Amino acid sequence: MSRSSRFHVTDRHTPRLTPLPADEWDDRSRRAIASLIPAERANPTGAGNILSTLVRHPDLTRAYLPFNTYLLNGSTLSPRVREVALLRSVHRRNCEYLWAHHLPIARRAGLSDVEIDGISDGQLADDADQSVLAAVDDLVDTGTISTPTWDRLGRHFTDDQRMDLVFTIGGYCLLAMAVNAFGIQDEEL
What's a Pfam family in this record (predicted)? Predict the structure, then answer.
């Protein structure tokens, strides 16, 4: 399935917010992203379009990024499970930008191209993976996880992991909505 056919975008537009130009970056901008990237990448090229756009509001960025950093690097979920949840979440939120940027991360976490296609189709062979997809779909569709899905998750994950899963799904749905609402463009465009 081609990448563009995975997403139904209803409002293609030019960026509503553009990345902060290099000549406007200051110490406050660089401090705002310090929890996620090293100082040498604290510039528009090294930070990429998401972070370079978020630093337009450094106080919000400085508050948000430690949480996102935890989801990405400190959670009790394995990188593979995180990427299953994350990819399904950004797929359900029609965020092509995050989908494309997480494909290499998902592959490094051990997901095959067949499994990645299964994430977008909502069908994975492994029961633990399928329970993660069901949790994403439940949360996106109803704002909660059904009892059968919660119990199914409990066969594979601890309570801490299920809590991290809920916050991972919510965190990446939030980021996907921000990327879409701000009109953040892929760096290659």
Answer: CMD
